[in-house]
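FIELD: query
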Amino acid sequence: MSQISQPSSTMEAAPLVRPPSAPGTVFLHELRDNRGSMIVWGVGYSALLVIAVMIYPVLKQNNVILNLLAGFGVLNVFATNYGLDAESVVGFKGYIAFQGLAWGPLIFALYSIPRSQMLFLEEEKRGTLDLLLSTPISRWRLLTEKTGALLASLVGILFIVWLVVLGATLTSPVADLTPYEVTTAVWHLLPISCVIAIGGLFVSTLVRQRSTATSIMGFVVLGSFFLRA
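FIELD: result
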């Protein structure tokens, strides 16, 4: 008589696969895709700031910063409009603000603008957007989770920068910055970076070509940067 095999109680259950429609699935997938670039950009920008901290004693000793700003007439502008003397501008706080963190919005724009264009334009170009929309995911949740992943990537980059700059300033004998000042100096870049990322996403919904959308946002960011400068 043939025996009917019974399932063993010790048999391992098949791994559960998270359904595509589950909340947060798109967010986690997009965040994993951004993980490598997030680490590279965070470490790269942190390295630039660390180098700026390391070379500051040499620049100050040779009066390079003072002579450079005086030659461009910047010291007179700060003294007239903001009441800042030369020591405030060429001191470590002024140096790291103008020579390091002032470039932050432009640097983060180089990251967030292409990323914002890739959220949907690249998906549409590869034909994967139709697959996503064919799943039981509402369009507003798809947009929200993809945008949230992009903003979370910016937070991750800033977190890396904050950790590295905090460690560099605490170990540097010339860095007269408190942890609170480092925190506010680094994290004040988040709002403007989020605005640029959202702006890039908005432009990508108006035009169909990625190169055109990138050019429009690049013109806006560069124009505002030079206007502010």
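FIELD: remark
The radius of gyration is 24 Å.
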